[in-house]
Structures are given as C-alpha cells and as structure tokens.
Amino acid sequence: MKDHTESMRVEFDPRLVSVSELLAVFWSQVDPTHMSSVQYKSAVFYTSDEQAAIVRDSIPKLRAGEKLATTIEAFREPWYPAEGYHQKYYLRHRSDLLRVLEESGVDMADDVAVTDSPLATKLNAYAHGLGTAASVERDAAA
C-alpha cells in the first residue's frame, strides 16, 4: 500500500503539556533529513494556524547542504486507526505487563479497550524503555 502514511495521533491536554514540549520529544527521536516512502515518512500534522507556526518554529537547524525531509501538513479527517494487532506493540510482547493491564480490568480481547486505555499507553511506553517500575506500579494502582 502506498496511499497512506503510518502515523501516531497524539491527544493531549495543553494545560499539562505544550505543543512545543511534544515537538521537542518528536525532534529528539527522528532524523528530519531522512527520506522515506510515503508509508513510513516523517511528518508532523497540525490542527490550527497557531500549531502550524509553533511547528515551523520548532524545526531543528540543519547543516549546510541538508534538506528537511519531514513534512509539515494540516491534519485532515478521516483518521483511520491501525488494526488492533498493531496497537500497543511493545506491550503485546510483555506478558508480565499484560497481566497488570488485565488485573486493572481492561478486557484484553477487546482491541478498542486496550487501544483506548491510558494505563495500556503508559505500560507500552514502559515496555519500550521509558519510565520506571515505580511509575508503572503507581499508575496501575490509580
């Protein structure tokens, strides 16, 4: 398939985290000069003119001769989430963390419930190496 771009939709509370903070994390994780296929391209989608300006101001300085490959685009509906088996990839490979999620009451057979669970999101990040065991225990107890 060459008619889609695999991407991640980030919903956030701007009272808790700013667009600039999210972009700082994004730019720290990507090479903005790396060219890729449409399916795997690096892109930032904005939802307002204000966000567009913040995104443009956040673009890292490139060295002479380098060209920005990350595209900056207006977000457009419709949004199609990936199939359930693609969701929470790192978490799905950690039976110990899946047990924590199941014990919290999330129906593991319901892909939507797993995808929409804030705890599953946090456990997935932990499974990828972000966060601490203490933060997992605190979030699971909440």
Describe the structure.
The structure is a single chain. The protein has 142 residues and is mostly helical. It has helices at residues 19-29, 49-58, 95-103, 111-116, 118-127, 133-141, and strands at residues 43-46, 71-74. Strands 1-2 form a two-stranded parallel sheet. Strand 1 (43-46), helix 2 (49-58) and strand 2 (71-74) form a beta-alpha-beta unit. It is built from 6 helices and 2 strands, in the order H-E-H-E-H-H-H-H.
Reconstruct the topology from this structure.
Elements: H1 19-29, E1 43-46, H2 49-58, E2 71-74, H3 95-103, H4 111-116, H5 118-127, H6 133-141
Structural class: mainly alpha
Characterize the main sheet: 2 strands, parallel
Q: Which range best describes the helical content: under 10%, 10-25%, 25-40%, 40-55%, 55-70% or over 70%? A: 25-40%
Ranges with pLDDT <50 over ≥5 residues? none
- Intertermini distance: 41 Å
Q: What is the number of beta strands?
A: 2
* Shape verdict: globular
What number is the mean pLDDT? Answer: 88
Distinct helical segment count: 6
CA-atom Rg in angstroms:
17 Å
What is the H/E order? HEHEHHHH
Q: Going across the major beta sheet, what is the strand order?
A: 1-2
Proportion of beta-strand residues: 5-15%
Task: Kindly list the characteristics that best describe this protein.
142 residues, two-stranded parallel ribbon
Describe what is shown at a glance:
By secondary structure, the protein is mainly alpha-helical.
